[in-house]
Amino acid sequence: MENNIQQEYNDLVKRRFEELDELKKMGIEPFAYEFDVNSDSEDIKNNFKDDEHRIVKIAGRIMAIRRMGKASFAHIQDHKGRIQIYLKKDELAEMYDAFKLMDIGDIIGVEGFVFKTKTGEISVHTQKLVLLAKGLRPIPIAKEVIDENGNKIIYDQFADKELRYRQRYVDLVVNPDVKDVFIKRSKIISTIREFLDSKGLLEVETPILQPLYGGAAARPFITHHNALDIDLYLRIADELYLKRLIVGGFNGVYEISKDFRNEGMDRSHNPEFTMLELYVPYKDYNWMMNFVEELFEYVCTKVFGTLKFTYDNLQIDFSRPWKRISMIEAIEEKTGVNVIKSDIETLTTVAKKLSIDVAGLNSKAKLIDEIFSAAVEGELIQPTFVLDYPVELSPLAKKHRTKEGVVERFEAYVVGKEICNAFSELNDPLDQRARFEEQVKMREAGDDEAHQIDEDFLRALEYGMPPTAGLGIGIDRLVMILTNQPSIRDVIFFPQMKPEVK
Question: What positions does the domain Aminoacyl-transfer RNA synthetases class-II family profile occupy (predicted)?
Fold first, then answer.
């Protein structure tokens, strides 16, 4: 293993292995078992008092070193930030010599008292030093230089996007803003949970491995269960199992889970993604629109302290009420065609005029979806509810109570991206069976994303499911927008990547 690492690198790695050997010869364990940390960089700086001789124990990664013979300064970085430490040879004795064998990237523990240097920097005067982990690979540290015109020039920045995604552990060390995005992500999710719990919804768990996949139009990942000798699917959605729980009598359930869709990848799609789904009995999609506005208001205000955001230089305001438009009317306004009344040939002609590749678009549902994406989506910058989708696009939603050819469904869009999807859920088992059978015809005609017939789900509906409102929110895309990140990969710790080429 050591040889493999050294072959990959240059003399810098060779030197680190030599330092490792020297440390071992000095009797110093280069990979410690523990260190009793009692403070962090933020706490030390925020609570400094000139007249207090405070003893602290802090640990972190060395990010800068300035050696001056019998004394040295260094900056270490912990989970809260950076702080300077001061080391003197006559106080640390052998460990000062050991410090000469330590590099940027090594993790150390320091015990000492807090003081302020002559330049006013709060620091830790090291009285005890412990090596916790010797770094065998150098971390990329950006160097800042101010040119003669006062401009800041940064060299050796760890900026290659693909490398940052592959080596997120390095990205988090050297790019502090990245860590902040993921802290925000965690707070967004915990605040969503807080809001839903306060509304009396119960968080539940449903199967990831499913004998039938459903709840969305997508291609699944397939795996095999050896003991049962059957193929299973990684879920593409949680919907059908959560609805079974509504049949069982729960008064509102939600799940924040990983879903999987065997599809292409782009700036807003990853094959493994985080989804919130929730279902509330005795409600409809009109109620759910108000619920979504309230949820967003709560999360944005609590996590960010504002309802106004900037995404890719676009100004967004999540204040209530959001704009509401009809999908059918929006398409007709842009194309002059009523997609409900049009046949496949007419829709194909419209799609071609919009420069849509119609290969494989062999159903009205797919054509309408692509036409909407091309003609309307990009202009939906402010939060907007798009209402009343064609029946062909929504096999799990109730038909509209007053409008022919559409269902009671909405999707919310912001900055041209879909952020949630909701229905007045279909609870008529006879209508649901007919919709599933129509999906089977679409599958036989070549639509490999069409829904299967789930007989157990139909059986559940036959026992009776109350009128129900359902909602799905893509967490990754939501975090992208709220933290102003250009790609879904920027908000997923370890996004899916092609195998690394050696």
Answer: 185-499
pLDDT of residue 445: 78
4 or 500, which is more confident: 500
Rounded to whole angstroms, the Cα distance separating 281 from 67 reads 67
Q: How do beta strands 81-88 and 107-116 pair?
A: unpaired
What's the pLDDT band for 5 if we cut at 50, 70, 90? Answer: low
Sequence-separated contacts (24+) of 194-197 with Cβ below 8 Å = 194/302, 195/295, 195/298, 195/299, 196/254, 196/278, 196/295
What is the domain class of 2-133 according to CATH?
A: mainly beta
Q: What's the CA angle centered on 295, arms 289 and 296, to 5 degrees?
A: 95
DSSP secondary structure letters along 329-389: HHHHHHHS--TTT--HHHHHHHHHHTT---TT--SHHHHHHHHHHHHTGGG--S-EEEE--
Q: Look at phi and psi of residue 282 and say left if phi exceeds 0, alpha if psi is from -120 to 50, else beta.
A: left
User: Is the N-terminal amide bond of 30 cis, ω within 30° of 0?
Assistant: no
- 411 in a known ligand binding site: yes
DSSP code of 242?
H
**Contact between 194 and 217 (Cβ < 8 Å):** no
Asked if 165 and 489 touch (Cβ cutoff 8 Å), the reply is yes
Q: How many C-beta atoms surround the C-beta of residue 452 within 10 A?
A: 14
Distance in angstroms (rounded) separating the CA atoms of residues 249 and 242: 11
Neighbours of 279 (CB within 10 A): 26
Average pLDDT, the chain: 92
Q: Is domain 177-322+382-491 given the CATH code 3.90.550.10 in the classification?
A: no
pLDDT tens-digit map of 349-380: 999 999 999 888 878 888 999 999 999 999 99
pLDDT in tens, 229-263: 999 999 999 999 999 999 999 999 999 999 999 98
Instruction: Determine how β-strand 55-68 pairs with β-strand 253-260.
Output: unpaired
Q: Does 404 belong to an annotated binding site?
A: no
pLDDT digits (tens, 9 = 90+) for 8-18: 568 889 999 99
3-state helix, strand, coil in the chain (%, to 5): 35, 25, 35
- Convert 412-443 to b/e letters by CB count within 10 Å (16 or more is b): bbbbbbbbbbbbbbbbebeebeebbebbeebb
Residue pair 483/475 in contact (Cβ under 8 Å)? The answer is: no
pLDDT band at 154 (very low <50, low <70, confident <90, very high): low
pTM (global) more than 0.85: yes
Give the residue extent of every domain in the chain.
Answer: 2-133, 143-170, 177-322+382-491
Q: What's the confidence (pLDDT) of residue 2?
A: 54
